[in-house]
Amino acid sequence: MEIFSSVQGEGPHVGRSTLFVRLGECDLRCAWCDSAHTWQPARVFRIEEARGTARFREVPNPVSLDDVVRAAEGLELGAHRFASLTGGEPLLQPEAVRFLAAALRARGPRILLETHGLATDALATVIETIDVVSMDWKLASDVRRASDPAKGPHADFHAEHERFLRVAVRAPEVVVKIVVTETTGDDELDEACRRIAGVSAGVPLVLQPVTPALAVRERPSAERMLALEARAARVLADVRVIPQTHKLYGAW
């Protein structure tokens, strides 16, 4: 969908120079998604014209993977600490992830995969090309599958996430992120923490207060975030509260 240069805006590598390669399509519907335009295939590929300028040109999709690598080189790829493969959900296109991760890593930056943490079989085919797996742990209070009815109850994601995490820990680094909203329940957070600890209690957990978007209009209070941090820290060794920093200074 697009390629651009910025700094990482969330998670433990916040503030580090990152080249973002965004792949289109997603099979989840998050109530707070800040990139809902990625849910469907894109007709054009947006390429930043020069590093950090936010000036883009557009070319028709589909583009070749070699063209993506050339676009990355035009944005001073080797000067970045990370190249982030993000979405949408990149693991819906595992062959593209595998090619791009290997090609971009060979030119200098570490590869960070930003994923919804459900496509386990796809992850297994690319894991050796990834340096950092940044997986969301989706909570059913705010997230449904695209195939689910728009209203009414639907299955949670805990078992699928646990299976995914067991593969993700093969990477040199893995971090789990939970977006916290006003509807996040103690029980669903407890279950997520229990399952993460069952794989590895040392996996960092980032509790990210939601940035209001789409149907979500308010963020949880500081008191609530601190209470959830303390709750999660009873089970996990490394719990951090980190908001989306790029939203504070207007980066994309």
How would you sum up this structure, described in words?
The chain is of the alpha/beta class and 252 residues long. It contains 7 helices and 12 strands. It has a single domain, classed as Alpha-Beta Barrel (TIM Barrel). The mean pLDDT is 95.
Task: For this entry, give a set of tags.
single chain; 252 residues; TIM Barrel; ten-stranded mixed β-sheet; two-stranded antiparallel sheet; 12 strands
CATH architecture: Alpha-Beta Barrel
CATH homologous superfamily descriptor:
Aldolase class I
Number of separate structural domains: 1
Average pLDDT number: 95
Strands ordered across the widest β-sheet? 5-4-1-2-6-7-8-10-11-12
Helix- and strand-based class?
alpha/beta
Brief summary of the model shown:
With 252 residues, this protein is an alpha/beta fold. It contains seven helices and twelve strands.
Layout: helices, strands, pairs:
Layout: E1 2-7, E2 17-22, E3 28-30, E4 44-48, E5 56-60, H1 65-74, E6 82-86, H2 94-105, E7 110-115, H3 120-126, E8 132-136, E9 143-145, H4 158-168, E10 173-180, H5 186-200, E11 205-209, H6 222-233, E12 239-241, H7 246-249
Parallel strand pairs: 1-4, 2-6, 6-7, 7-8, 8-10, 10-11, 11-12
Antiparallel strand pairs: 1-2, 3-9, 4-5
Helix pairs in contact: 1-2, 2-3, 3-4, 4-5
